[in-house]
Amino acid sequence: MSQPENTVIIESDQPIPVAFPAPRRSRQARVVWGQRVVTVGGDAPVRVQSMTNTDTVDVIGTAIQVKELAIAGSEMVRITVNTPEAAAAVPHIREQLDRMGIDVPLVGDFHYNGHRLLTEHPDCAQALSKYRINPGNVGKGEKRDRQFAQMIEAACRYDKAVRIGVNWGSLDQELLASMMDINSQRAQPWDAKQVMYEALIQSALQSAQAARDIGLDANQIIISCKVSGVQDLIAVYQALAQRCDYALHLGLTEAGMGTKGTVASATALSILQQQGIGDTIRVSLTPQPGEARTQEVVVALEILQSLGLRSFNPSVTACPGCGRTTSTTFQELAKQIDDFLRAQMPVWRAKYPGVEEMKVAVMGCIVNGPGESKHADIGISLPGTGEAPAAPVFIDGEKAMTLRGDGIAQEFQTVVENYIERRYGAATAAH
């Protein structure tokens, strides 16, 4: 093909490198409940965390939501512990979960009165697997160090992990004021936002060192510095990762609703994860009216799976549709297959190891349909406008059959089920 005049073609005999996330460099922490040990950091996979929005005093309601989040894929679930009544409810929530066979670790979210709740409610302190401590909300002046120490001492006593979670909406104002004063003395003062960044990091690192001075092991510490802006989060965590090797919890705070929260979280977390930054993640979505709390878990799983960091569910590649497609059949089939795979995963995960890495393609016409179907483990190419009313099915790169008629959707679902049984069931039986 001829090239336009003045076009410069740059050729290379070097292959384009395959993109992979940078290696992780954080130390490893352990979050434990009973026989369940969730490792965080080091060479452990990136962990997904979520948080309930129930009143913790409602033991049954909270336990049910924790179960839903855990089944959706959350590997740790944070609950609010804000009153003596909530603290008293925590061990009962843990008992309910244990009865249901849900061994997900619980994280206690403490602000303002955590020192008192952990001291006065030892059963709560024991039932939790991790404490979230916000350095900006542990007290002011002389009280701050004493109350912070009480919480760390509880973690040491019960051998619990601690997340030192700094948030720019509740940043230690005394520290920020001090850093503003220092900044005013500089020959070239920093921008106010840069001072804020530094205050976030200093608050986290100083608190982590204080915890270690009290006796908490460095491997029990996880750090977060959460902000609500994408570029702000990237800047803070890039600097934080260069200045410490603690395991890092990653997420936008108050990410927002719907597509805004989803896109902002996916953008920020993906950039940092590609750089090897972040050992646990949470997508802090504001649920749409009537939307399940589990949506934030679904988005977090999709981020990690899209980056190739982990596999949770078989992926479905689907045609977006164009003027060549004859109907919404491919959209309906793609949704039906995707919903079916997700619904079956809690059972399949144990029955068919490896099924979460399966790739399915549901395409709408002949342009990309056969090619995408061949690249998938199993795929179907539905007829487009003017094409013969037939849908070839490809299995492991080869055409296996052609489906016709009104029952294509149900027939293809049966083909997928049989494929899973044959491929992943046989592997299980061999072991």
From TrEMBL:
It holds the Pfam family GcpE. Binds 1 [4Fe-4S] cluster. This is 4-hydroxy-3-methylbut-2-en-1-yl diphosphate synthase (flavodoxin). Gene3D superfamilies: Dihydropteroate synthase-like, Sulfite Reductase Hemoprotein, domain 1. Belongs to the IspG family. GO terms for molecular function: 4-hydroxy-3-methylbut-2-en-1-yl diphosphate synthase activity (ferredoxin). The gene is ispG. InterPro entries: Dihydropteroate_synth-like_sf (IPR011005), IspG_bac (IPR016425), IspG_bac-typ (IPR004588), IspG_C (IPR058579), IspG_TIM (IPR058578), NO2/SO3_Rdtase_4Fe4S_sf (IPR045854). It catalyses: (2E)-4-hydroxy-3-methylbut-2-enyl diphosphate + oxidized [flavodoxin] + H2O + 2 H(+) = 2-C-methyl-D-erythritol 2,4-cyclic diphosphate + reduced [flavodoxin]. Residues 316-417 form the IspG C-terminal domain. [4Fe-4S] cluster binds at residues 319, 322, 365, 372. Residues 38-300 form the IspG TIM-barrel domain. Its EC number is 1.17.7.3. It comes from the Bacteria. Its cofactor is [4Fe-4S] cluster. Converts 2C-methyl-D-erythritol 2,4-cyclodiphosphate (ME-2,4cPP) into 1-hydroxy-2-methyl-2-(E)-butenyl 4-diphosphate. Keywords: 4Fe-4S, Iron, Iron-sulfur, Isoprene biosynthesis, Metal-binding, Oxidoreductase.
